[in-house]
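Intended use. Records like the one below are meant for learning the mapping from a protein sequence to its folded structure. Do not use them to infer anything beyond what is encoded.
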Amino acid sequence: ARPIAPGERHVFEASIQAIEFLGAFCLVTVVAEALGPKPLQVVLSLNFLSEQALAVGSTLPLKLLPERLRVFA
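Structure written out for the chain above:
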Protein backbone atom coordinates (compact mmCIF):
# COMPACT_ATOMS: atom_id res chain seq x y z
CA ALA A 1 0.00 0.00 0.00
CA ARG A 2 1.16 3.49 -0.77
CA PRO A 3 -0.02 6.65 0.97
CA ILE A 4 -2.61 8.61 -1.01
CA ALA A 5 -2.06 12.36 -0.94
CA PRO A 6 -5.05 14.72 -0.91
CA GLY A 7 -6.15 15.70 -4.42
CA GLU A 8 -4.51 12.76 -6.19
CA ARG A 9 -6.20 11.55 -9.38
CA HIS A 10 -7.80 8.13 -9.91
CA VAL A 11 -8.76 7.79 -6.23
CA PHE A 12 -12.13 6.42 -5.13
CA GLU A 13 -13.81 5.02 -2.02
CA ALA A 14 -14.42 1.28 -2.03
CA SER A 15 -16.32 -1.02 0.30
CA ILE A 16 -14.86 -4.41 1.25
CA GLN A 17 -17.17 -7.31 0.31
CA ALA A 18 -14.88 -10.25 1.05
CA ILE A 19 -11.37 -11.04 2.30
CA GLU A 20 -9.51 -14.22 1.38
CA PHE A 21 -6.39 -14.79 3.47
CA LEU A 22 -3.37 -16.05 1.50
CA GLY A 23 -0.61 -16.07 4.11
CA ALA A 24 1.12 -12.68 4.30
CA PHE A 25 -1.28 -11.24 1.69
CA CYS A 26 -5.03 -11.11 1.24
CA LEU A 27 -7.21 -11.09 -1.86
CA VAL A 28 -9.77 -8.39 -1.08
CA THR A 29 -12.97 -8.05 -3.11
CA VAL A 30 -14.30 -4.48 -3.17
CA VAL A 31 -17.17 -2.62 -4.80
CA ALA A 32 -17.32 1.07 -5.58
CA GLU A 33 -19.85 3.36 -7.19
CA ALA A 34 -17.03 4.75 -9.36
CA LEU A 35 -16.50 1.28 -10.89
CA GLY A 36 -20.11 0.37 -11.59
CA PRO A 37 -21.70 -2.95 -10.56
CA LYS A 38 -18.69 -5.25 -11.06
CA PRO A 39 -16.47 -6.04 -8.07
CA LEU A 40 -12.72 -5.44 -8.13
CA GLN A 41 -10.14 -7.69 -6.51
CA VAL A 42 -7.07 -6.13 -4.92
CA VAL A 43 -4.12 -7.70 -3.13
CA LEU A 44 -3.32 -6.14 0.23
CA SER A 45 -0.82 -7.19 2.86
CA LEU A 46 -2.15 -8.78 6.02
CA ASN A 47 -0.16 -6.16 7.96
CA PHE A 48 -1.94 -3.31 6.12
CA LEU A 49 -5.38 -4.82 6.84
CA SER A 50 -4.47 -5.22 10.49
CA GLU A 51 -2.90 -1.75 10.88
CA GLN A 52 -5.96 -0.11 9.28
CA ALA A 53 -8.40 -2.36 11.20
CA LEU A 54 -10.11 -3.29 7.92
CA ALA A 55 -12.78 -5.99 7.73
CA VAL A 56 -15.75 -6.91 5.56
CA GLY A 57 -17.96 -3.81 5.39
CA SER A 58 -15.07 -1.36 5.89
CA THR A 59 -14.45 1.40 3.38
CA LEU A 60 -11.04 2.44 2.16
CA PRO A 61 -9.65 4.82 -0.42
CA LEU A 62 -8.04 3.13 -3.42
CA LYS A 63 -5.94 4.55 -6.22
CA LEU A 64 -5.77 2.89 -9.63
CA LEU A 65 -2.17 2.46 -10.74
CA PRO A 66 -2.20 1.66 -14.49
CA GLU A 67 1.14 -0.12 -14.31
CA ARG A 68 -0.24 -2.52 -11.66
CA LEU A 69 -3.61 -3.36 -13.27
CA ARG A 70 -4.30 -6.88 -14.58
CA VAL A 71 -7.46 -7.36 -16.65
CA PHE A 72 -8.90 -10.83 -17.22
CA ALA A 73 -11.63 -11.34 -19.80
